[in-house]
Each structure stands twice: as C-alpha cells, then as structure tokens.
Amino acid sequence: MFPFCTDPSVLPDWQWFACYLTTATHVAMYRSVLVVLLLMALAAPMALALGFLGALAMRSGFAPFRAVGTVYVSMVRGVPDIIFFLFVPLALDQALEYLLHKWRCPDWSEPVRRGNDFVVCAQAKFPLSSSASWIHDIWGFTLALIAFALVFGAFAANTLHGAMAAVPRAQIETAEAYGMSPAQAFRRVLLPQMWVFALPGLSNLWMILTKATPLLFLLGIQDIVFWARELGGQKTGLFAYPHPDWRVWYFLGVLCFYLTLTWFSQKVFDRLMARVSHGQATAGGEALRRAGA
C-alpha cells in the first residue's frame, strides 16, 4: 500500500489501481499463486515416487506385494478423484487425533463417535486451537499434499507399469545372458529405456495435476481461483475500492496463468523427451540420429 492511498475516492485512475492491486486481499491472492506452485512442485515427485513403488509392486513375483499394488492402483483409478480429496485429509486428521486422544487422555470414558460427531479431548486436537494460524495453514496444506500424491501416484504407477512392460523382454534376457543379475538388468537396461515410453503419460498426468489444483478450495485452502471469484465480484460503496463485476477479468488472468504454466511445462517435457530418446530404438531416437548424421 502506497502513502497516497489514504482516500481512494479522490485518486486518479492509475493511483486507484495501484492502491487497489496492493490491498491485503490482493497480496493474499498473489501468495495463493505460490501455494499452487509449491503444491505442484512437491506433489509431482511424491506421486512419482509412489507410482514407482506401485509399479514395482505390480511387477513383483511376491503375490502379497502384487495384490497391494494392484488394489491401490485399481481402487484410486476406479473412484472419483474428488472423493479421495475429501476422504484422505479427513481420515488422516481423525486418525491422528484419535491416536493422540488415546495417548493424552487415557481416562476419557465417553465415546469418541457420537452420531455424526467426532469428539476428542482438547489436548488431542491437532493442531491445538491455541496454535498459531500458520501452523493450521501448514497442516491443511500437508493433508492436501498427501491427498494429491496418493491420487496421482496411482495413475503414475499405471503409467510406469505400462512403460516397463513396453521395453522388449528380449533385451532383459540378453542382459541376463551376459551375466547380469535381475537387479542389474533392471537398473541398467529396463530403467533407462522405460522413460521414453513413460514420459508421454507422465506429461499428461502433470497437466491433469495442474488443472486439479483448484480443488484446493474443497480442503479449505484459498487458491487463486477462490480469490479470482472473491475479488472479481461486485463491490459496493461499503468497500474502500468499489467496482462493478470484474470476475471476467480476474478469471482471464487465471486463464493466462494456467496457459503460461502449460506452455512452459510442455517445453520442459519436450526437452526431456529429446534427452531420453537419444540412442533409443524408437521413432524419436531415430529422428535424433538422422538429425545428427
């Protein structure tokens, strides 16, 4: 906020907009952009790690591991994403509070479940009601991050499993015939080659993750779409900066943000695809070989 913002009603247009766009609510909107980017930056590697473990479980020769991987992938893929985004944070939050309740309040005699209510002692609340607001924000963000990682990890597992299966089995057999152990063949032959088959699917997952970030509002996190709707709505004279309905302009800004993010992401994936295709017996690898010839 600038020093000349004391009386917005007498300001010329450029100063009015300068003051309007630097209010506390707009700063919160700018901060929400960082929240969205942070969620994507953390959820993507977590989902990839879960997907890799899920794909290995689905390929495992140990039946219980294979069953766990198959159930995880099939369950998440078969249930609408929004259910997991609502269920996972609630289940984790209540499970943690229940464990804290049993630990910190062993003398509690009343039932925890009372119809639709979940009641634990005050000491078991997490975070505590007396905790700072930033602790509540971090906890809510953590729950959202886990939900996104679990959902997109299942899709990543299916993509990676298919990519591993696409590598010709003859190459693995040749590596083992040369004396490599199954682990060495996996690490030196299968793993480097599977990425050329996995990247198209993983790039689609990244784009879907990008489009799914507005679901943060379901978990009580004020994201960029929430603020675009709130700040763009019609403001009357009761507000310091009254204006008509500007939601079209705010949502146009959100559109530009997501299109820019998509464009930049596609450029990154194109570079990665060119890198992993180098030397591979694929159409992309052949095109790179001819270009370098």
Count of individual beta strands: 2
Report the biggest beta sheet as strand number plus sense, adding barrel if it closes.
Answer: 2 strands, antiparallel
- Per DSSP, the total helix count is 10
Mean pLDDT: 86
Low-confidence stretches: none
The succession of helices and strands, N to C, reads HHHHEEHHHHHH
What percentage of residues falls in helices of 4 or more residues?
over 70%
Structural class: mainly alpha
- Seen as an oligomer or otherwise, the chain set is single chain
Q: Please tell me how large the radius of gyration is.
A: 25 Å
Shape: flat
Going across the major beta sheet, what is the strand order? Answer: 1-2
Beta fraction: under 5%
Distance between the amino and carboxyl termini: 59 Å
Describe the structure.
With 293 residues, this protein is mostly helical. Helix content is 71%, strand content 1%. The chain contains 10 helices and 2 strands; from the N terminus they run ααααββαααααα. It has helices at residues 13-20, 24-59, 63-78, 81-104, 133-166, 169-177, 182-212, 224-232, 247-277, 283-292, and strands at residues 113-114, 117-118. A two-stranded antiparallel ribbon has the order 1-2. The longest helix is centred in the first third of the chain and has 36 residues, at 24-59. It is flat and about 85 Å long.
